[in-house]
Amino acid sequence: MPPSRPSALVLAASLLLTAPVAAAEPAEAQTAPIAVTPAAQQAKARSDGFPVPPVVGLVRTGDGDRYAEAHVRRTLADAGVTRVVATDGDDPRTPVTIYLGDGDAALDGLGVKNADGLPPEGYVLAAGHSGGHKVIVLDGADADGTYYAALSLRQLVEHRQGADRMPGVEVRDWPAMRYRGSIEGFYGTPWSHQDRLDHLNYLGGHKMNTYEYAPKDDPYHRDRWREPYPPDKLAQLGELIARARENHVDFTFALSPGLSICYTSPQDVQALLAKFEAVYALGGRSFTIPMDDIDAGRWNCEGDRARYGSPGGAGAGRAQSEVINAAQAWATAKGDVAPLQMVPTEYYDASESPYKKALREVLDQKVVVHWTGMGVVPATITKAQAARARQVFGHEILVWDNYPVNDYNPGRLHLADYAGREPGLSEHLAGIVSNPMNQAAVSEIALYSFADFGWNDRVYDAEASWLRALDEVASGSEEVVSALRDVADLSSYDGTVHHEQAPVLAAEVEEFWPAWRAGKPTTLRARAERLLAAPAVIAAGVKDQAFLDEARSWLDATGLWAKAVLKALDVLDAVRSGDGAAAVGARRDALDLVTAAKAIRDARAPHSTTFPRVGDGVLDRFVTQALGELDRWIGVVAGRAAASSTLGTYADNTPDRMVDGDPGTFYWSNAAPGAGDAVTVDLGATTPIGDVAVLMGKPSSPDDFIHAGVLEYSADGVAWTRLATGTTAEVKATAPDGTRARYVRYRATGGNDYWLVVREFQVTAVGDDVTRLTVSGGPAGANPRAAADGDLGTAWTASGAPAAGDALQVTLSRQRLIDRVIVVGTGEAEVQVRTAGQWQPVGGLTGPYTELDVADVTADAIRLAWTAGSAAPKITEIVPRYGDVPAAVLSVDPAALDTAAGEEATLTLSATSTRAAAVTGTLSVKGPAGWKLPADREATLPRGGELNVPVAFTPTGSGTLEISFAGVTAAVAVKAHRAVAEANLAKGRPVTASSVEGGTAFAAGNAVDGDLATRWSSGYADAEWLTVDLGSAVDVGKVVLRWEAAYGKAYRLESSADGRTWAPLAVVADGDGGVDEVWIDQANSTRHLRVQGVERALTWGYSLWEVEVHTVAKA
Predict the structure, then answer these.
(1) CATH-assigned architecture of domain 179-473
(2) CA distances from 119 to 122, 177, 1065 (A)
(3) Superfamily name with CATH number, domain 8-173
(4) Of 187, 447, 736, 821, which residue is the least packed, with the fewest Cβ within 10 Å?
(5) Active-site annotation holder among 78, 91, 217, 293
(6) Tens digit of pLDDT for each residue in 1081-1102?
(7) What order of strands is seen across the sheet that includes strand 937-941?
(8) pTM
(9) Taking every annotated instance into account, which residue ranges of this chain make up the domain F5/8 type C (predicted)?
(10) Which pLDDT score, from 0 to 100, does residue 830 have?
(11) C-alpha distances in angstroms, 941 versus 158, 834, 913, 938?
């Protein structure tokens, strides 16, 4: 269907031009902004608009056709016209006359140039007063142009109270690209016949002219390409061709023979042409031969080997070219067939190769070559890349753009904006077509922007176009647009063009946690309620039933996840109010909702293999974190480590699989890790650790590992200590004796070209200072260990009613001072603790959550003594809370600080709760005499929570800062250095290097150009160096080195007055990459500064994004 008239939002986001023309109109007819989408090449408003009367004259001339006329008549009917009179333009009964096709005399009267000289598909649309008559002229450069003028007319008529109005306008418009539209080229469930018919309507209604029929799972297109289509399928193709013609869309039939063709077989060539002949007989006049996704390294017959030699490379290029040339000769002989298109086997780059050279030299120059950009699904396509592709293929380039296609991303809809394509690509491309999703109607959100970009890429605005697309789906309803934006945010991630998961929601979640911990108001509940309402708002407001049917699984999942978030917020509210029973109930509800969301399956392959991914990495992580707050509030300590990742997840290969003890399962990311990305294991409590092993990669993906990383551990997740570095798929280390950690992570120190697979992340606990719980007793039931495994997701369930004397007992591995006993579960029992060998009752179970104050008794066991004959009990967890632990665990970030003497510095104190009650105390900061320190303050640490407090102070020299709270003290070593100036003296200075990595542009000057996107890289040797000439001798106080992945494990900073004789300034023996701040405490006179390598961290050389040099500040 044609696009609806623009709403207020569309008008605001469209191309608005209001330049008046000379003729004046009565005061009641003011000029209005012109809104034509896609944005017109040239448009200006006139002041001689007029109301649309009930009777209008129609003059058929020139390049009009019945399809354009049908659009004009629908527009007039919607504007209140009751009668259209065919006329020659002089009928006095028609106060307004429309010229369809041309209308030179009327245009002359308006002072408007006609469409002569416009590119194909161009048009002139003008309206105003001409020789005393009110006229509208639709003058097309050809029939397509007239058709597009009719579409623009529909957008321009203004609906007003009483009578609609035609503004005075002058539009000269034409497409920037020759091919604009879509290629149905995805794997998985193909579109239905009705999908395709509707899609052709959509393309034509949005000034797109290309539909390429290439469904990978149509057997007659690919696997059984030699076989004729059955009559029913051929009839459907004929219907599609007819519908395409009605919409001024070129139906391009694709045949993909590459899996089995014998290039030298005349029979195979004739089979291909016979298939084309059958489609030609139906009216098809455009054809393509895809040779993508095939094994070009083998021949399908010996004749090919005899003619072309070894398979692949130049031989494959020649063989394909000769077959396609035969098809192009057939097309040329027909006389009315468009130039043939082909998809090369090497469609994904623009580097020179024997294969591309063969295409350039052998393939008929008329053939148009498809190209996906620099990659199968590139994040960006630039003009320079397109120009290079045109050069290396030697043919016109048509971009097959793999967006919003989702066959490679099971469970995902791609609903973000169409971004990353440089305006001006039309200078180098013949066109750009979208490979859409398995969901045809939902793909229209992206297709709208393809229409905008293909028509006028120079003024393309991705976000504005995306908003217009949503507005069209919403039929102009602001409420529905808002709901669509919320849902689209949850489906914005694709891992290629868009790397952020639910960016709007993620920002709100990030703001939530510090506000919640500080007891401040938050907005997340309102956001979750909006998400909960969104599916119903969309279902009621979106008129396209196909859109609703295709999106249903994701809309249903959105509603369930929204409810899960609301229940997770209920958990947090209950924790804050101390209501354990309500918290446990809300937790159960949240998990049930998550289970329901993950049980949904869409009917279309490949999305039928997994659940709909909506806001994953944000919604699920929030629910997990919120439930983790309950775990801490109750005091459970899981027996098995929990794993997490900063990256997303491919399919169902979730992070928990790296700690499941099974090397046959694995975590698999859905993107390549960048510097700072990490996989982390949470041991649940601070524990002595020994051996650590990170086993990455798998036989079918051997390169899917972090190629440069650092293994680190932490007690609090804030301050991290390096354990080892790694560059291989398996990284192993042994922690020094006495090492205690709760968290262990493997962090990437540089970029990677591959995704990440982690088969196992093993951390071995040592020693026995952890109190271990052993479950025994009865009655008999499944999994008794689950009653004290530190996991609220497991439970022991009795197989029947308790008998007299039955009791479930939890024995501690050593005596502890017990403050409280918490029981999560149901049953009728007396709770007892064993002290000095005697059982002492402390209370009874009171419901699904029981918490008993046992008044700090020393005990070594807890038991639930059941009431005989009562209902079969089910116990999720028995938790002893200890009174012999510090009131809090303190940590400081950073754990050690280098700063400048006399300048204010800030540390962050993190206090973590260890008791089953809130702790209020005095936060005190002490340091050496003369330091400026903050005053003591009162603070409250909530039960199970954290307290993060910035601590600002000013040191006058080096020393130890002590921060105390609730009887616990954390000490920080502060090293105060000479204060330095802010200016970077190295920027733009002359620089020399021992070498530059061969075959690269990573020159020495990149290290001092002030651009963190450029770098210097050396040759592959330890003794490489980089020298900066500072221009004059200065006292250097600090040097900052910003390393790429290839960092210096050991290096020296050296000083020289003449660039020949060098003295040491600093020695670094334990570099760990990232950013090194090296302070120089001794006075020096340095003109030349050298970074002298001693030992590389990796097999490559040294690589620096930037070197910064700061002088000692003047007093």
Answers:
(1) Alpha-Beta Barrel (3.20)
(2) 6, 10, 68
(3) Chitobiase/beta-hexosaminidase domain 2-like (3.30.379.10)
(4) 736
(5) 293
(6) 999 999 999 999 999 988 889 9
(7) 896-900, 968-977, 959-965, 919-926, 937-941
(8) 0.86
(9) 622-766, 973-1112
(10) 98
(11) 63, 31, 7, 10
